[in-house]
Each structure stands twice: as C-alpha cells, then as structure tokens.
Amino acid sequence: MPEADRELVNIRRFLKERLQRDYTTLRGYAEERSNVRLLLQRTAEMGESNSLLLIGPRGSGKTTLINSVLADLLPNKSFGENTLIVHLDGNLHTDDRVALKSITVQMQLENAADGKVFGSFAENLAFLLQCLKSGGKNSKSVVFILEEFDLFCAHHNQTLLYNLFDVSQSAQAPICVLGVTCRLDVIELLEKRVKSRFSHRQVFLFPSSQRFEEYVDLCKDLLSLPTGNSLLLAAERIYNLQNIQSGALYFSRNHFDPGEYGFSPRIRDAWNKQICKVLATQQAKSTLQSLHDFDISEAYLKNFLFRLVAHLRPQSPHITAEKMAAVGSQFEGDDKIELLCGLSVLELCLIIAIKHHSEIYDRDPFNFEIIYARFSKFAKVSTTMQAVERSIVLKAFEHLRIAELIMPLSGGAGGGVGKVQKEFEMHKLALTYGQIQHCVQRYQALPTEVAQWAQSSLI
Question: Domain 337-455 has what CATH class?
Fold first, then answer.
C-alpha cells in the first residue's frame, strides 16, 4: 500500500474511533458534573448512601457525564480501590431476576454464595441484601448505574428499585444509585413506597444554547488531528470506556504507541490546514448552519461527521465543502418520506384518503372500511384507480400497516371481546401531514388527478 494511502487509512481510523468511541470527553455541564462527582466522592470516602436521577433528552450527554466523572475518580486510590461499579440497562435487564443475576456477577458474589442453590427470586434477593447490609461504614461502596431507568419502573412491584433505595436510605453499607432516563415524568412512574425512599435528587441535562461560532469550533476540534500529549489524551478517552465498565482503569500510556496511527508531521499539518480552510467557506458554514438549526447536540454533529469521514477514499482523500453539502442533504433526509416515495400509486392513494379522514375528523382512528369508502368515491371519478378490486386494496392497506405507516390501536374496536375482523380493526396515522405533502411533491410520475386530490378534501 502506498504511504499516502496508509496514512489516510490511519487518519480515518483515528477520527472514526474518536467520533464513535470517545465516551468520556464531556463539554459543558460543569455544575451538573460537579454535583455527580461530589455525590460519588462522598459515597466512597465518607460512607454516605445516596440516590440521584440524571434526566435529559437522548444524546444530551447523560452517560458521558457519568463516564467522565468515573474516568477522573477511578485512578484515585481512595475511590478506585474502595468502590464497585455495577452497570444495569433497562433494555437488557428486562426483569428483576435477570438484573439480580447480573448484580451478583458484577459484585463478584458468586464465591460468597458458597455453593448455595437459590430456588426463588426472593431467596436471591435476600442473599444480595444480606451481603449489602452486612457491611459497615468502612466496607466497599457500590455504585449502581441504571440506564433507561424508566424501564425498571415497569418491573413487577418495582421490587429491585424498592430494595436498592431502601438500602441507600439505611445506615448500612454505602451505596449510590444513579438512574439515567430521558423521561421527565419518571418520578410519577415510581410506586408510593419506592418514591418515599428516593432522595428526590434530580439533575437535568438539556443542550445549551450554543452559538453557531462555538458549533463550528467544535466541528474543527473533532476533525483536527492532535499532536504529542494531545494524541495520548485522545487515545486514553477512546479506550477508557471498557475499563470504566469493568470497574477499574487499566489503561496505561505505556500500552499506547503514538506512532500506531502513522501521522507524519507534514501530513498532520496539511490535514489540519485543509480542515480550517474548508470550514471557512460559505458552503460549509451553510451546511453546518442547517445542522445547527435542526439539532445543536454534540451527538448529532458527531453522527454527521462520522458519515463524512467514512466517505474518504484514496481517490478523494480530503474533506471538502461539496462533500459536506452532499452528506448533509442525505443526513437531513426524512426516512418516512423516502419510504412513502417507494409506495405504489394505490398505496399512496390510501395514504391520501387517510390524510383527508384525519383532517376532517381531527385525527380520529379509522379502519379499512372507512378508508375504502373514501377511496371508492375518488376511484369512481378517476381514470387511474377505476376497477381496482377490493381484495387488492385490502392488500395495499395491510402493506401500509406492515411498513408501520399506520399503527393498530391496542385492544382493537371490539374492546377485547372476541377477535375483530381485520377490515374493522382501528388504526391511527403514524405520519405528519407535512411528510405526506412532501412525498406528493417528490413522487415520480404521479398522476395529476392524484396530486390534485391530495391538495383537496372535497372528495
């Protein structure tokens, strides 16, 4: 492989790993980060038990904040040697039994079980609580990190949450429960007995009102190649996550060779100059402005830059304003509109009939019979849709359901009594009127009468 191509491969690999695997670099949220850090320090060093919820939209940096704090604290002996980290995720640990098994493994309590065979969830839970409560103020502290906290609220009787919060309220072994969720109403999901044992500490993370100039600087920082110690620090951030999840930081600078990526000073400087030059152009700023207007979160920008870096090839080894505009146009595309544009004319006619029904009846639910009656009125005066058999229209309606453009209502129209025929099962529209309008405008070779029908609610 030519030297230039090898260096391009190394540049791509480094940037993709930074954009995809750097889970410990947190920008902003200084006050929120300080609150979480202080809480964990007091649990580890002073034997206090605490509970806290991190609440914010997806991609706002909740998990990154926790990882950032742990990356700072775990190298300290007073914290790293006296703290166990237990990670749970509501998507993986779908009930308390599975969660309890994972806790036992992560706390390394398999040997403490001493060959005991537990026949029930209650016995497993009693054993875990005994292990936690048998410790005193000087025993190891345990930090429980519950991702997708709201999903744990759906577990039967919220037994796990109740007992974790109960231990955190007692003066026994120090534990800290950190819940991570995107639901603002999560407190309302807790049962009364669980809510009474929660400390009601909440930290809210929302994307800050970042100025566009700061957004461009962030983009430049993410795309630039670091040098010297900066490269070492960048590598630490990339590789720290797996060590955080295992409860200790095993990363050592001796394990990382800065020459691994093969950045020659000449190539590195040329790359950084090119990035500065591109981001100064009006076309690049226009692309970034549209991204900034849509979503100012760092996660959204990283996703865009990852796709941009993935397009680098030996034939076109540089990021250009034209490439940014091309990826930006794809990135801002609406998947639902693309799906709509791939429908048959008949299926699109049903979508239009559903749109008219929803507009007239304020988005009331509908079934096939209602939509078929509306479609039939149009078909009688249409040269395109005449003589379409009912069975074919029903198949088209079912395809819309399979594609999740319409969603069935739970329970159906029969109120749970017997099985409802598919023609009478009630549905709701899973699209906005704007998406349907965009599809009608973009649809290739759409019959004029169908396009006109989409604009009118008279039929």
Answer: mainly alpha
Percent of residues, the chain, with pLDDT higher than 70:
83
In angstroms, what CA-CA distances link 234 with 25, 89, 333? 9, 27, 32
- Give first-to-last CA distance, the chain, whole Å: 66
Task: Return the higher-pLDDT residue of 393 and 104.
Answer: 393
CA dihedral for 385, 387, 390, 396, sign (positive or negative) = negative
With left for phi above 0 and alpha for psi between -120 and 50, is residue 353 left, alpha or beta? alpha
pLDDT for 306 equals 92
pLDDT surpassing 80 at residue 260: no
For domain 28-204, give the fold: Rossmann fold (3.40.50)
pLDDT band at 243 (very low <50, low <70, confident <90, very high): low
Domain spans of the chain, in order of start:
3-12+211-332, 28-204, 337-455
Q: What is the rounded distance in angstroms from the CA atom of residue 109 to the CA atom of residue 152?
A: 22
Query: Which of 34, 21, 106, 90 is closest to 65 using CA atoms?
Result: 34
Residues 268 and 227 sit within 8 Å (Cβ to Cβ):
yes
pLDDT digits (tens, 9 = 90+) for 310-367: 988 888 888 999 999 988 887 767 788 889 999 999 999 999 999 999 999 988 999 9
